């Protein structure tokens, strides 16, 4: 069964190939459809297959033409029009467009002029000096392709937020150390806290742009300079690409707004501006109500904002929208109505319910974990080691007898601790949604986190039923990492997040945002669906050693991407309310 991600990938490819074929407008529509399909909370193929084609009307950007292609794909596993495009343009387009400066249009041209189909073909053509002979290209473009080829080969995958963000923080610290830099900030997907990152974007405000660019490319941590000019530079640091833009202080806010994205948010915001006689771009917000020729340049009209990002939104009569919400999933309408969520922050978190010790596969004893949790200023903390069961390596998970022994050990540490310590377990949700713990064990425990560790290839309908069965189980307090996905490794279960959220709300079971940067499970759009359905959320680190209790940062920002307010998240509640919830 096709997942939403697979359907979305087909439409991305569609968009790339159409663009390569010099088709206008249509590619944008396909990209928008792809994004909305990817983030749709319920498994589209399942519903279409079940005859429920009304699901297609729920998806923004999916009109009749795209809807019929989705149906065709679900029914036949292919899309005739896409096959035709592929035959027409047999290019490895995802690979080739990974080269900075080479987009689908360029790829199309290189194929038509030189027969380039793969990265290897392109390398051969560039080395033979054929690329610079193509109309519209030149020696500089050819050199750029050669310079970026190797890097394009190595960065097939997007980086994890947990790897890229610490680098971005280092970049910011470096920029702040440069005297000529007045302000600096990250932009792009990093600032939106997306779970994977294509490249790291940073922005600096300065009156001495060229000096700042020069200092940046000379930074000790830079491995390679990819390109640089008076206003920007791109460098490689380890596995990451970092893009710096320098702007004058008066345009910092507008540039920050523009380069933070997402593209979809910016398109929607620009349209919102146009409807109000305004023009937005990276140079500012302009009142163009008196301007006759709207295409007459970037800085045309009366400039009303640009120095601060708040000012850009204010110019449209909107409150500032937190970057995590900038996905075009309703944030502009909410801002207009004054209904933006009051998002949870790291400071709201009072405890963690899911982490491991050496009793199962953790690295330290119970005491070390509790001490670390107390040092973080938490009021309460739960140990939840693995119970034995499906998906857990033999001998690693605890038997019922061992669980009862560990409960005693946890109670002993808890009695001496400054914070409340919960005796918990991470049980295993089997293929049918059951956890198989004895009544005695269930009664002895304070908190039961139940997670899927097996049968992660179920179809979406079965998976939804399985997860709903789990949250209906009164013994289960928290459904751990619901999809079981591992970013860049396995996609995990697909399920109907709205249906799961409704069941969780009804049965008082929390849905986890697992903060491990390889998981981030649930993620933004799923959290948003769950929160909308009224489900309690629990943000946990799944730490296996004291240092990774710091993963809480990733989980909080992921919950923010799902519009979560403090009251939605049980980890912000006081001890008394938490105790009542766990009962
Ligand atoms: P990434 O790097 O793939 O994780 O995602 P982003 O969002 O960081 O994308 P990136 O690095 O290509 O561009 C950074 C931001 O700049 C992006 O979020 C929005 C803005 N931007 C860049 N190019 C365009 C464009 O052609 N149109 C619009 N509207 N915005 C753009
Ligand atoms: Ca980026
Ligand atoms: Ca970039
Ligand atoms: Zn687990």
TrEMBL record:
Single Gene Ontology MF annotation: DNA binding
Protein task: Repair polymerase that plays a key role in base-excision repair. During this process, the damaged base is excised by specific DNA glycosylases, the DNA backbone is nicked at the abasic site by an apurinic/apyrimidic (AP) endonuclease, and POLB removes 5'-deoxyribose-phosphate from the preincised AP site acting as a 5'-deoxyribose-phosphate lyase (5'-dRP lyase); through its DNA polymerase activity, it adds one nucleotide to the 3' end of the arising single-nucleotide gap.
Coiled coil (UniProt feature): none
The organism of origin for this protein: Natrinema salifodinae
Cofactor dependence: Mg(2+)
Catalytic activity: DNA(n) + a 2'-deoxyribonucleoside 5'-triphosphate = DNA(n+1) + diphosphate; 2'-deoxyribonucleotide-(2'-deoxyribose 5'-phosphate)-2'-deoxyribonucleotide-DNA = a 3'-end 2'-deoxyribonucleotide-(2,3-dehydro-2,3-deoxyribose 5'-phosphate)-DNA + a 5'-end 5'-phospho-2'-deoxyribonucleoside-DNA + H(+); a 5'-end 2'-deoxyribose-2'-deoxyribonucleotide-DNA = (2E,4S)-4-hydroxypenten-2-al-5-phosphate + a 5'-end 5'-phospho-2'-deoxyribonucleoside-DNA + H(+)
Entry EC no(s): 2.7.7.7, 4.2.99.18
Chief subcellular location: cytoplasm
Residue span, DNA-directed DNA polymerase X domain: 2-327
A GO cellular component entry from the record: cytosol
Protein name (record): DNA polymerase beta
Annotated ranges, domain Helix-hairpin-helix DNA-binding motif class: 54-73, 94-113, 129-148
């Amino acid at each position: 069964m096709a997942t939403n991600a697979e359907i979305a990938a087909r439409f991305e490819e569609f968009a790339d190939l159409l663009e390569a074929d010099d088709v206008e407008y249509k590619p944008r529509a396909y990209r928008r459809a792809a994004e909305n399909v990817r983030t749709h909370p319920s498994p589209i193929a399942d519903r279409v297959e079940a005859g429920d084609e009304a699901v297609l009307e729920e998806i923004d950007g999916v009109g009749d033409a795209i809807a019929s292609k989705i149906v065709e794909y679900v029914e036949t596993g292919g899309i005739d029009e896409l096959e035709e495009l592929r035959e027409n343009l047999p290019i490895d387009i995802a690979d080739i467009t990974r080269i900075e400066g080479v987009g689908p249009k360029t790829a199309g041209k290189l194929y038509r002029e030189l027969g380039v189909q793969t990265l290897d073909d392109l390398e051969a053509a560039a080395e033979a000096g054929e690329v610079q002979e193509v109309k519209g290209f030149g020696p500089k473009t050819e050199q750029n392709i050669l310079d970026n080829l190797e890097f394009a080969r190595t960065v097939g995958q997007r980086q994890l937020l947990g790897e890229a963000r610490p680098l971005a923080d280092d970049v910011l610290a470096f920029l702040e150390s440069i005297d000529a830099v007045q302000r600096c900030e990250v932009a792009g997907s990093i600032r939106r806290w997306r779970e994977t990152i294509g490249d790291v974007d940073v922005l600096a405000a300065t009156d001495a742009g060229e000096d700042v660019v020069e200092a940046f490319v000379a930074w000790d941590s830079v491995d390679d300079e990819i390109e640089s000019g008076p206003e920007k530079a791109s460098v490689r640091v380890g596995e990451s690409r970092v893009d710096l833009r320098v702007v004058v202080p008066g345009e910092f806010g507008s540039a920050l707004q523009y380069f933070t994205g997402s593209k979809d948010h910016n398109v929607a915001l620009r349209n919102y501006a146009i409807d109000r006689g305004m023009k937005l771009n990276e140079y500012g917000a302009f009142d163009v109500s008196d301007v006759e020729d709207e295409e007459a340049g970037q800085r045309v009209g009366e400039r009303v904002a640009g120095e601060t990002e708040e000012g850009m939104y204010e110019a449209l009569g909107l409150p500032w929208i937190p970057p995590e919400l900038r996905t075009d999933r309703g944030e502009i309408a909410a801002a207009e109505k004054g209904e933006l969520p009051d998002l949870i922050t790291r400071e709201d978190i009072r405890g963690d319910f899911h982490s491991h010790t050496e009793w199962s596969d953790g690295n330290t004893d119970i005491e070390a974990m509790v001490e670390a949790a107390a040092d973080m200023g938490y009021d309460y903390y739960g140990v939840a080691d693995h119970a034995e069961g499906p998906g857990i390596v033999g001998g690693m998970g605890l038997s019922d007898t061992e669980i009862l022994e560990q409960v005693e050990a946890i109670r002993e540490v808890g009695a001496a601790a400054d914070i409340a310590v919960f005796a918990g377990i991470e049980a295993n949700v089997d293929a049918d949604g059951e956890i198989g713990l004895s009544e005695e064990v269930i009664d002895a425990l304070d908190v039961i986190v139940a997670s899927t560790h097996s049968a992660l290839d179920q179809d979406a309908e079965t998976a939804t039923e399985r997860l709903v069965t789990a949250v209906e189980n009164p013994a289960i307090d928290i459904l751990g990492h619901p999809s079981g996905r591992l970013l860049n490794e396995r996609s995990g279960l697909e399920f109907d997040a709205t249906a799961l959220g409704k069941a969780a709300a009804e049965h008082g079971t929390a849905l986890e945002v697992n903060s491990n940067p390889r998981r981030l499970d649930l993620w933004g759009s799923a959290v948003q669906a769950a929160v909308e359905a009224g489900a309690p959320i629990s943000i946990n680190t799944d730490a296996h050693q004291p240092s990774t209790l710091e993963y809480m940062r990733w989980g909080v920002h992921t919950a923010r991407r799902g519009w979560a307010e403090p009251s939605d998240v049980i980890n912000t509640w006081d001890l008394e309310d938490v105790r009542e919830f766990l009962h």
